[in-house]
């Protein structure tokens, strides 16, 4: 007989993380607002963090969580630099469409 | 009990993630991102990664989303986007196909490797944390400040470089002084 209490296994967490990663990747492919694209990159980073934590628990290894810590720090730095670049681009152009930014020259 | 937590947190995560890519207004997308980040924090707690859950709420929901909202407000791009126009022909259909394929492949790989995980003791109640409520933080601190102490120091250099670089990028050019 099936046990009455079904505990979610690591596989469930990994499938959830893969769905989250895919949604983030779709957002980067489809959206044209650079800020929203940045948010989708954050979604992908969170999916990877979730994978690290789940596998770290499954293998009883703390190093998974240590790596997530570093991923978070690097993500914060990346957002700061990216938003700085977006601000300095938007200051000279008014559009909010990345298709208009196909050329690097000002 | 863990099933209930997992279900609620998954719904939060997925609804927030879909909100990020489907809401027209960038502010609404940022608020959906907050929902997703809180859901991920709940999942971290459910897997007894309490310190990371706290860091997730403080750094992501507290700092990064606030930064996004600041930039949205400062740039004045808080206009709703018209999502009906499709800038590249049939781009969305191809993107949807790629998405279905990606989630199918990833899920197939994960599910097919479930046996390996089960052989390594899958689903056991977190031996990482143990009985001591502070065990998670102690183990993480031991790991970061002994094994990864060099990476930790490099990380602080990275943060300084990012802050200085952003200040240089975003400051207005005055006529005299450094460029």
Which labels suit this protein?
heterodimer; A: 106 residues; mainly alpha; Helix Hairpins; 3 helices; 72% helix; 0% strand; B: 179 residues
Structure commentary:
The complex is a heterodimer of chains A (106) and B (179). With 106 residues, chain A is mainly alpha-helical. Chain A has a single domain (10-101), classed as Helix Hairpins (Orthogonal Bundle). Helix content of chain A is 72%, strand content 0%. Chain A contains three helices and no strands. Chain A has helices at residues 10-30, 34-58, 63-92. In chain A, helix 1 (10-30) packs antiparallel against helix 2 (34-58) and helix 2 (34-58) packs antiparallel against helix 3. Chain A is elongated. With 179 residues, chain B is mainly α. Chain B contains seven helices and no strands. Chain B has helices at 2-22, 26-46, 50-75, 91-112, 114-119, 135-147, 149-170. In chain B, helix 1 runs antiparallel to helix 2 (26-46) and helix 2 (26-46) runs antiparallel to helix 3. The longest helix of chain B is centred in the middle third of the chain and has 26 residues, at 50-75. The model of chain B has no long low-confidence stretch (mean pLDDT 83). At the A-B interface, helix 1, helix 2 and helix 3 of A face helix 1, helix 2, helix 3, helix 4 and helix 5 of B.
The biggest beta sheet of chain B is recorded as: none
Name of the CATH class of chain A: Mainly Alpha
- Count of the domains of chain A: 1
Strand content of chain A: under 5%
**How much beta of chain B, percentage-wise?**
under 5%
Distance between the termini of chain A: 69 Å
Helix and strand element order of chain B: HHHHHHH
Greatest chain-chain interface?
A-B, 72 and 83 residues
User: What's the story with the biggest beta sheet of chain A?
Assistant: none
Q: Using the 3D structure, state the CATH architecture of chain A.
A: Orthogonal Bundle
Helix share bin of chain B: over 70%
How much is the radius of gyration of chain B in Å?
Answer: 21 Å
Overall average pLDDT of chain B: 83
Main structural class of chain B: mainly alpha
| Straight-line distance between termini of chain B | 59 Å
């Amino acid at each position: 007989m099936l046990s009455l209490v079904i505990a979610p296994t690591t596989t469930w967490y990994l499938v959830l993380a893969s769905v989250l990663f895919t949604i983030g990747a779709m957002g980067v492919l489809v959206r044209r607002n650079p800020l929203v694209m940045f948010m989708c990159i954050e979604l992908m980073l969170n999916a990877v963090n979730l994978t690290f934590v789940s596998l770290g628990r499954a293998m009883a290894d703390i190093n998974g969580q240590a790596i997530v810590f570093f991923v978070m720090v690097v993500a914060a730095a990346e957002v700061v630099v990216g938003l700085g670049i977006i601000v300095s681009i938007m200051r000279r152009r008014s559009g909010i469409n990345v298709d208009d930014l196909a050329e690097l020259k000002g | 009990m863990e099933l209930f937590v997992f279900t609620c947190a998954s719904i939060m995560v997925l609804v927030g993630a879909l909100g990020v890519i489907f809401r027209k207004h960038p502010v609404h997308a940022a608020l959906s991102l907050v929902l997703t980040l809180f859901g991920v924090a709940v999942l971290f707690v459910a897997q007894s990664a309490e310190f990371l859950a706290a860091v997730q709420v403080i750094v992501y929901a507290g700092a990064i989303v606030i930064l996004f909202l600041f930039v949205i407000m400062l740039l004045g791009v808080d206009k709703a986007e018209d999502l009906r126009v499709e800038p590249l022909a049939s781009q969305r259909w191809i993107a949807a196909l790629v998405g279905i394929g990606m989630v199918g492949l990833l899920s197939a790989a994960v599910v097919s490797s479930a046996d390996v995980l089960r052989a390594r003791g899958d689903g056991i109640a977190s031996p990482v944390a143990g009985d001591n409520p502070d065990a998670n933080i102690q183990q993480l601190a031991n790991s970061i400040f002994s094994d990864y102490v060099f990476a930790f120091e490099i990380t602080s250099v990275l943060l300084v470089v990012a802050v200085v670089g952003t200040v240089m990028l975003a400051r207005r050019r005055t006529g005299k002084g450094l460029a």
